[in-house]
Task: structure prediction
Amino acid sequence: MRSSVSICNKALQYVGGSPILSFDEKTRGAELCRHLYEEVRDELLESHHWSFATRYMMLPKLPDAPPFDFSTAYQLPPDCISVRQLEGGKPFEVVEGGVLYTDGGSARAIITVRVVDPMRYPALFVEVFARKLAAELAVPLMNSSKLEQAMFKKYLDSFARATAVDGAEGVRQVDETDGWLQAREL
Result:
């Protein structure tokens, strides 16, 4: 069963650390994982618009008019990590307090949300997460910048693979048996 501790144990395994049973243990590995886990998770969720963390929603309008060049203010949900876009490609700005400014009467948005349940993470995201944690753990746990560099490279490789697969979800595949493609090859 996938859990925050199992993701940390995967990262600890990558750097040669000892596994943990919980974040409350009095070990250096548990202490570091406890401090790094949420920070790394949120950083990864913010770094790509993962399909499993995507939400389509109508944002609630706030009563006060925003300052500057926008006409309307909307409240973002507390679990919002980032706003991808508004319906119709309307320009917007997100400011402190989870407020979005834009023009127009309604704001239908595509947002990335903070997903805290590891059971909802796809396998490739778990791999990216563990690789990023391993890179973060290498110096404070194993005192090795060389290991950190190697783990960071593995993180980048896994991130590229995972985002390519995630980005291909829902993309219509070209039917290579279509006559015009076959004619073009001749």
